[in-house]
């Protein structure tokens, strides 16, 4: 087995090639295209894997690795040679054979975010008891960041929102605040991935207004907008430890498609 550098023209907007074993994670490899190496893993003439990594000498960062259904023993030998005498930090997915490989190699494992999807987007109720106010892209930092901090009990809303509007995908979706009697109680931000998927970046409701059905109305309204724009699917990333959020999304009809797994080794 060997690595062959990937041709940039063969990768999509998310830094991924088109192979059956590729997990279409839109929130990963596209952020490292400026400094990581992208390569196919070949067994003879067959492409059996894909890897995105950065080698820093004593440390090896693997941002993405996925394999086809091939022999684990053969793949293990290849990966051991590749990772030899390095501290390795790797990300792969629970539905790909790479996760079995790292477990077999004795790496430490930690579960990361999981992707949930609604396919197709149904038509939800046509009337809502809330006020929805659209927010233009340029106004997101000033209009949303305080509300973001209130919803998530943090103080980094302004920086987060400024980073978001610099994302090339930020202009593809919808952003709006949710009001009751003129007062903001929540917000929604999404983008469009893969031309047909409404990807929820954030959904927030301030704590004292939770468990009143407002989150459900907010999400139904947002998905109606996405459906009207031509989206047929909706998806999001969620922390599997956040059982309340996972249950809410399940009740909305979303199902888990895959989960990230982070692996770490110790240098030999």
Salient structural properties:
268 residues, alpha+beta, Aminopeptidase, 12-stranded mixed sheet, 6 helices
Structure description:
This protein is of the alpha+beta class and 268 residues long. It has two domains: 2-113 and 260-264, Aminopeptidase; 121-231, Aminopeptidase (3-Layer(aba) Sandwich). It is 25% helix and 35% strand. The chain has helices at 72-83, 97-104, 140-152, 157-165, 214-228, 243-251; strands spanning 2-5, 37-43, 46-55, 59-67, 87-93, 108-118, 131-134, 175-180, 183-193, 197-205, 233-238, 255-264. Strands 1-2-3-4-5-12-6-11-10-9-8-7 form a twelve-stranded mixed beta sheet, with helices on both faces. A hairpin with a 3-residue loop joins strand 3 and strand 4. Helix 3 crosses helix 4. The two termini are 22 Å apart.
How are the SSEs placed, and which strands pair?
Blueprint (H helix, E strand, L loop, with lengths): L1 E4 L31 E7 L2 E10 L3 E9 L4 H12 L3 E7 L3 H8 L3 E11 L12 E4 L5 H13 L4 H9 L9 E6 L2 E11 L3 E9 L8 H15 L4 E6 L4 H9 L3 E10 L4
Parallel strand pairs: 4-5, 10-11
Antiparallel strand pairs: 1-2, 2-3, 3-4, 5-12, 6-11, 6-12, 7-8, 8-9, 9-10
Helix pairs in contact: 3-4
